[in-house]
Amino acid sequence: MEHDQFKSAPVPHSQVYSRLDDSDEGGLALGEIIGILMEYRWVIAAVTALGVLLGAAWAFIVKPVYRADALVQVEEKGPGGSSAMSALKDLGPLLGIGGDTTVAAEQEILNSRLVLEKVIQKKRLNIQADPRYFPLVGQAIARRYKGEGLNTPWFGLSSFAWGGEDIQVDALDVPRDWLDQKLVFVLGEGGRFELFADDDEPVLTGKIGERATSKGFSIFVPKVVARPGTRFKLMRLSPDEALARLTKQYTVKERGKKSGILEVSLKGEDADRIGVVLDDILNTYVRQNVERRSAEAENTLKFLETQLPEVKRQLDAAEAAYNGYRQSRGSLDLSLETQSVLGSIVEVDNQIVALKQERDELRQYFTPEHPRIQAADAKLEKLKARRAEFDGAISKLPDTQQTVLRLARDVEVYTTLYTDLVNTAQQLRVTKAGTIGDVRIVDVAAVTNLPVSLKPIAIIAIGSVLGVLSSFVVVWVLRSLNVVVEDPEEVESKLGLPVYASIPHSNEEVTISKRNKSAKGMGTLLAVSNPEDDAIESLRSLRTTIHFALLDAQQNSLLITGASPGLGKSFISKNLGAVLAQAGKRVVIVDADLRRGHINKEFGLAREAGISEFVADSVKLDEIIKPTSVSNLWVVTTGQIPPNPSELLMHLRFEELLEKLAERFDTLIVDAPPILAVSDAAIIGRHVGATLMVARAGRHPIRELEQAVKRLNQSGVQVKGFVFNDLDTDRQRYRYGYKGYVYRYSYSNKT
Predict the structure, then answer these.
(1) How far apart are CA 84 and CA 68, in angstroms?
(2) Domains, the chain, ranges and CATH?
(3) Rounded to whole angstroms, how far apart are CA atoms 300 and 428?
(4) Is the pLDDT reported for residue 22 higher than 60?
(5) Is the dihedral of CA 531, 535, 540, 546 positive or negative?
(6) 3-class secondary-structure state, position 22
(7) Is there a contact between 231 and 184 (Cβ–Cβ < 8 Å)?
(8) So what's the pLDDT on residue 90?
(9) How far apart are CA 139 and CA 129, in angstroms?
């Protein structure tokens, strides 16, 4: 039965007229957009609901992410923390301390391999060990398990983890080619296990609590909590991959401009672990800062400790030589003039020795061309020149006095030098012990109580928004692919044929059609059950149009066909016949679809004794003309379905049937099969007064209608025009101002 029409909202009015604008400005107006959205509202609702469901599923599956935060202060500090160390300020240039500490530099150090790789090694962040969960939902189920012991396996799949499983891997070494590659750890009975590098054979077997090594693989697993047969995924990360994974969740930024406060944070799925890891990062950073500040003092101290034994040996030798000479010559005393020269020489020699020591320290950091090195060399030359002057004065003294003076000078010089070196070494030891660094931890790591990732309600909201946007894309794709005729104006403009009537969608007809299919016996006509329906009002307008269309025709017969099945041509035929009969016309409907004809069912008539029997000359004309419950309306059924419908319709008896019926009735309506499916309509069209084609809104590409008209024309049948069926008037209402608008005029029972 071809009553089916697209479902839409009912039109509670009696008559619909469509006015079409002559101009088409192109594009979509707001009303047209609203009309399209209303037409595809169920598609939009379905895609949006799918987006909400996917959002809810993602909120259930995704693992929450937590964040640990800490604060570090960067300040400019001296070598020590107390005022007692202020006496060491003169050693600043020698020790390389007292320079500025920049926040940007410390921020880079916090992000450096120097700090992070130590933490990776210490906390074994380069070893990944996770239970193997059931795909998609397994990890979410395990995460929500709060019971004691192990969760009961779902669906009997005990090789997966379902909650309560844990593994501790303290060491995992693999060949270089297997870095960043997944390994499978399978727990066996009695604490035994197997490690697979692929799915074929294990690369090693071992026991919990014992180190196992084989084929370049080595593993030590001190603890596993799982059922025998449970699988775990292991991976030894390369240094670059381990560092990349850590830095992906790790951030360092300055809190406030020039505040000197660094905010350090670490994100992760394990709330307990990220706090420990962040604290270890900070402690490693502070420790290296202190070590860096005391490193130069330690290097200088090492240098002095190598010089002290040599200076002490030289001092002892000088004292022994001086005392031996005095004993061999008797007790000799230096004159006042000689003592004055000795004091000056000792002072100059001490300055030369101190300057040489300072120059040796500078050479560890600067080249000989550096200004500080050159300045020290110039000062050293001046001291040497002054020392030469004293040597000239000494040469004028007696030999005995010269020897005593030289020996006494050596003792004084080495004594002063040794004393200075001992004092300097002691000061450096105090400096090294008192160095505290330029940074300090203000706040230790604190982990957030609630996840910092998106909350479930936010994920669902995002899913709904994406669902709505996706539904618009789906509608656009469907509209782009579905190049069908939606507007009767398109038929008129592209085919050059008039549209005699636009039949609006009728929910009442949809209900009647479903009821007729399921019920036995006589069906119901929309024109009888609801004569005020908008579709029937449009057929009344078509009745007037047909009257003028048949005025110049040789026969009073009308052929109704279409391009393809399911257009509602039988609905048009029987309800148009009822409308004509209600106007006092004697009307007969001929069901000429000898393949799938079904009009007899709507009228509760038997198929037998119809066209097939008349053409076969087994019945008389009066026997096939069957009255209906509608006054002035008769029906000629198909009769028995023949094996050769086209040959039967080409028989002279069929042409005779149409002629005799046209003589007896005011209007003859022939319901024919679709022209693109079979050629029956082209055969019948040569024996009727006019031919109308039924087109259904949203069903045909314009090329299909062109082909149908062309096929009829090639058979000598001229199509008078179209009946545009199943027009969505709700959408037309939204399209006001674009392609047309709809007038409605309702009956009223008020007096």
Answers:
(1) 39
(2) 30-63+452-480 (no CATH), 127-236 (no CATH), 296-440 (no CATH), 481-744 (3.40.50.300)
(3) 8
(4) no
(5) negative
(6) coil
(7) yes
(8) 45
(9) 14
